[in-house]
Structure prediction request, 531 residues.
Amino acid sequence: MSRIEPLSADMFDADCGHRMPFRVGDKWSAMLLRCLEAGPRRFTELKVPLHRVSPKVLTETLRAMERDGWVTRTAYDENPPRVEYVLTALGRALLDPMDHLLAVDARPPRGDSRCVRGVRAGGVTDPAPRPGRAQAARMVRPLALVRAVLAAVLLPLLVSTAPAPRPLQHPGALLDRGRLDFVRARVRAGEEPYASAFDAMRASRYASLWYFVQPQTEVVCPPGDRPGRGCVQEREDAIAAYTHALMWAVTREKAHARKALEIMDLWSGTLRGHSAGNSGLQAAWAGSVWARAGEIMRYVHKGWPDENVARFDRMLREVYLPQVAGGSLGRNGNWDLVMADAAASIGVFLDDRAVFERAVARVRQRVPAYFYLRSDGPRPKSPPGGLVDSREELTRYWFGQEKFVDGLAQETCRNFEHVGYAIAATAHVAETARVQGVDLYKDVAERLGAALELHAQYQVGEVEAGPEWLCGGRLTLTMGPDAEVALNHLQNRLGLRLPHARRLAGEMRPAGTDNLFVAWETLTHGGEPVK
Prediction:
């Protein structure tokens, strides 16, 4: 990809006649959107055109944009430290409406060719003659009149016709009350696969009442094999909390409820942040599981003190959500989907429908660019964000794969493990959306089914492993316990025939946990209630 042009120091100078006739987010958000339009920028780069904004205010604005899902912040584990900001798909979607509004309210720049009017941050508009005062007044007054008329006519219409949003359902992160009751009844009746799955969960170290909790003030997770601090402990403690919440939901043994609350309360009273290059993915893994555990204990158990609930709420909102809300453009697609999984579940726990809906929208955008179908054409769709567009970039992004078949994933030629993460995360969001009355499955089911079948047939050895056309004949068959939620919907609800995926799930049952964000899904989604 070509190197992006540096930002000009006088890009937003008053002498250039630049103005934003509207506000997007905070005072400086619209200008930051323009600065980030061409690609990732460092904080020091952003300060160049925004030199009149104090570093403190600029940092607060970027944090707000990250929290709202407009930008992603990535900290690289380098010396000196490097932090970059990039627009998310949601942030990039704001650019065209800004262009249209600027075109309607345009004032020509004051003749300096270095200035930009705000149409494109990286380009330069042709200077136009500056109108005289009378001409400018004639331009502005009709515009003000049009705005007033539109506001008077359209706003009441929109307010009166817009349906009230449906309240979020609780518990509603992956599991609802009906499914929890169904699982409990099946286990108590000794039915399979639920009884064996429950026994496996009960025998795990996560279900021990003597489980040792290790809360951290800061979780530091660098990429690769470099040592971090608190990464494993955070993930495992979140899974332990979820495990004890499920143990209580099935057995109603108070000791498990106390243990689940102990783990969550210790972490919410200690954790202050995540750092290093894998911080976003780490927060997504743990955050999705925390939210699932929290939903069970808050809305089914109902014995969690209000002040502790508020503290846990604050942890998810202030520590986890900013890390995952904006997704991860430019990274491998499993990052974006796992972050959406976390954001959707956290949005449910926070009772924040906007956060939940943005996560669902992200999955709708990302899945078609991650799981290929022949109907896409000869090449895969480009991922959101415009960072991977050309044929050469797409080939590199798909790990050198040149031939595309139904169900192929962006990371197939990396390894099946990461494809499994993407399948599980997509199914988690779709299942959470289903609980909330949103049919995301209809948008992703065909791609999920194709991906499950393609990867399962190689994973279980039902076809030749590693044909030359696929990843050069080198497949890394490391898929984990990721199929249950997707398979339950596709096979048991929709009645689709997925023999390879069914065999894969059967060989892995009872599915345990990947020690990241997938846990006990044979127990929770190994079958569907008969209706």
In short: The radius of gyration is 25 Å.
